TrEMBL record:
<dbReference type="Pfam" id="PF00669">
    <property type="entry name" value="Flagellin_N"/>
</dbReference>
<dbReference type="Pfam" id="PF00700">
    <property type="entry name" value="Flagellin_C"/>
</dbReference>
<keyword id="KW-0966">Cell projection</keyword>
<keyword id="KW-0282">Flagellum</keyword>
<feature type="domain" description="Flagellin N-terminal">
    <location>
        <begin position="6"/>
        <end position="136"/>
    </location>
</feature>
<dbReference type="InterPro" id="IPR001492">
    <property type="entry name" value="Flagellin"/>
</dbReference>
<dbReference type="InterPro" id="IPR046358">
    <property type="entry name" value="Flagellin_C"/>
</dbReference>
<protein>
    <recommendedName>
        <fullName>Flagellin</fullName>
    </recommendedName>
</protein>
<dbReference type="GO" id="GO:0005198">
    <property type="term" value="F:structural molecule activity"/>
</dbReference>
<dbReference type="GO" id="GO:0009288">
    <property type="term" value="C:bacterial-type flagellum"/>
</dbReference>
<keyword id="KW-0969">Cilium</keyword>
<feature type="domain" description="Flagellin C-terminal">
    <location>
        <begin position="211"/>
        <end position="295"/>
    </location>
</feature>
<keyword id="KW-0964">Secreted</keyword>
<keyword id="KW-0975">Bacterial flagellum</keyword>
<dbReference type="GO" id="GO:0005576">
    <property type="term" value="C:extracellular region"/>
</dbReference>
<comment type="similarity">
    <text>Belongs to the bacterial flagellin family.</text>
</comment>
<dbReference type="InterPro" id="IPR001029">
    <property type="entry name" value="Flagellin_N"/>
</dbReference>
């Protein structure tokens, strides 16, 4: 039945055209944004997962930056300890030389004083981002952020750290630092390697001075080993964090990024369907004109 009030063919063609236009708009949006899911309206569940992953990735980026900073701080501390070992070795050489018959102990004492000042300079300059791991200015432990566990609000999120128990090489007024309170087993008194004088080269104390220097080197070596082990952990953790960050980046991409090859192919097909839909609607609308001809 033909009717001038209702045109079923035109309605069907119009509905098909609307569907094609909607799909075309969606595809054009994917191509322009590069995303198949750009908001919760596109797919609430997938969008929510992707946003959580993006948030975690942001935290991992911060942790990675923190670990890079931690590595730099540890590098400075390790360099300071190594330099201190070198200077204490020079002190040992000078003290040993003072035991030789005819040695000029006054000049040796002057040299020891200069080496002591060098030790102080090494410690005071081993600062990076206001952190000095060798001058006793910290709380005794350096804690570097190493990982983050997202509990999604169901429980407390967790932050783990890599810790270094710091040791004091020199601190003004201290008698317990490695360099100021060096005392080997069996020594009658401790030695302040940053302030040795001719008195420390006397016949009755020079052996203790040398033994105490050996004790300081042993303590410095032990601290250097601890710093090195912490550095290794920091570098390994940073490598792992970067791997995790890359995995999250790929995961988010697989969830929300548009396949541009597919989208471009689909766009061409939809544009063709749109053109055919317009033609189909035009043909359907011609039915009313055909009815008029029956009355001519």
């Amino acid at each position: 039945m033909s009717s001038i009030l209702v045109n079923p063919s035109a309605i069907t063609a119009l509905q098909s055209l609307r569907m094609t236009q909607s799909a075309l708009n969606t595809t054009q949006k994917e191509i322009s944004t590069g995303l198949k899911i750009s908001s919760a309206a596109d797919n609430a569940s997938t969008w929510s997962i992707a946003e959580t992953m993006k948030s975690d990735k942001g935290v991992l980026s911060t942790i990675s930056d923190s670990l890079s900073g931690a590595d730099a701080i540890l590098n400075v501390a390790a360099g300071a300890v190594q330099s201190a070992i070198t200077v204490v070795n020079s002190i040992k050489d000078a003290v040993t030389l003072a035991q030789q018959p005819g040695a000029d102990q006054a000049k040796i004492a002057t040299n020891l004083a200069a080496l002591g000042e060098q030790l102080k300079s090494i410690v005071s300059s081993a600062t990076l981002t206001n952190i000095n791991a060798v001058d006793g200015s910290g709380a005794g432990t350096l804690s570097f952020i190493a990982s983050y566990t997202d509990k999604n609000g169901a429980a407390a999120s967790k932050v783990d750290t890599i810790d270094l128990t710091t040791k004091t090489l020199f601190k003004t007024g201290s008698t317990t630092s490695i360099l100021q309170g060096a005392k080997a087993t069996g020594s009658a008194a401790l030695s302040d390697l940053t302030a040795l004088t001719a008195a420390d080269l006397g016949a009755t104390v020079i052996a203790d001075t040398l033994s105490n220097a050996d004790k300081a080197i042993a303590d410095l070596t032990d601290y250097a080993s601890n710093i090195g082990a912490t550095q290794m952990r920091v570098k390994q953790q940073n490598d792992f964090i970067k791997t995790m960050k890359d995995a999250l980046t790929n995961g988010v991409s697989s969830l929300v990024d548009a396949d541009m090859n597919e989208a471009s192919t689909r766009l061409q097909a939809l544009q063709t369907q749109q053109q055919l839909g317009v033609q189909s609607l035009a043909i359907a609308n011609q039915n009313a004109q055909m009815i008029l001809k029956l009355f001519q």
